[in-house]
Amino acid sequence: MGKFWGKLAVKLKRVQRKVEIPQLPNPFPQVFHQLGKTIHGLGASFSTSSSETLLLLLLLLLFPANLAKHFVTSQSYVLGNLIDYLSPAIYLTEVLTFLLLVVNLSQSLRTFRIRPKLIFLLVGLFLLSLLPSVQQSSYKVIAFFRFGELSLWLAFSLWVAYRLPWKSHPKLFQILGLGVAWVSLVALGQFFLQHHLLGYWFLGEPTLTPSLGGVAKGSFLGREVVRAYGTFPHPNVLGGVLSVILGGLFTFRFWGPFVLGLGGILVSLSRAAWFSLIGGLLGLAFFGQKFGVIFLNDLSVSRRWELIQSAGEMIKSSPLTGVGLGQFVAQLPRFGIPSGLSLFLQPVHNIFALVAAESGLFSALLFGLIILFAFREAVRKRRFLLAVLLLQLIFLGMIDHYLYTLPQGLFLLSLIIGLSFSYSES
Prior knowledge:
Distance between the termini: 91 Å
Helix content: 55-70%
Number of domains: 2
Structural class: mainly alpha
Largest sheet: 2 strands, antiparallel
Number of strands: 6
Strand content: under 5%
Strand order of the largest sheet: 1-4
Radius of gyration: 26 Å
Shape: globular
């Protein structure tokens, strides 16, 4: 019996020697190597360093994110209501933009050349013109925060003009298309589930339920539904931003993100975004007549008109310096709150009137000149795609405020302005 067990043990040892346990390859070195090659390739397209390319890539991918740290103060309330526009906040996208501007700063300063002198002059004058409205503001913390935010995004437009050659814009829109794709998928999921997907910690996705007060709703196939937000603070912002970027995706035939973006605009139920998209694709033809018919007797239009009237009263009261940078909502009770069953405490839905009301007519003139000369540069350099996108931005800016008050809007406006002034290597 012992002999039998001895022979069995010997056979088992022989079998164990023959069995080779395969070693699984470690995928991480390959992944990081491929990522490095991708960043290097994009850096060659954008003419940027590796660190700048990585930060720009993250910014273009995450531009829809609404994740932020908010600072609520005693000045953040109007008539007992907490107002987001009076709560200073630091956004993820703004952190990425700040890092992009300061990385390799010493090298950038050594090689700095003012190639598009006009944008540098206009941006500098505009920021200087804001200082009196900061100084006379009743809420200094909010005014300084707004000044810093506007300075950051206008500096980003200068960075785009100086650092990104015009040849890089197809690749840029391709990466923007990935951002459009993921936020559109989130929006479609919200619309069909009538509920948020992952919540705020997923890049700032707002909490959405049909029973939650203040959630934007609309009519779809004869029934009331919750409109899709994506990760934006309002469906109109989702639709408006996508309507502009889709013009670039259509031009360069990035059909996957384009189709998903169409779905995102559709479920935003934003009529302004639908018209912006149609106008962008058809050259903004016959906008005025259609807009007037569709929006007649709409409560949102009457409130917008009342805000325009309040802005006019603010401009009359202080035409040179305005009521203070970032102070429109705080000063609104003095000049007339729009009528309705609920308090409508928002900035005037017109970016030019908003700049004039908060910072004076001279600042509004300079702000308009920045956009006007960006349009002129786009036409002069035969960048007709950017000319159309700027017209869309002007249209959206005439009927809403997010291009001047929210980071997603400021990102898009600064990017298109910067590209309009960007240099051609030829």
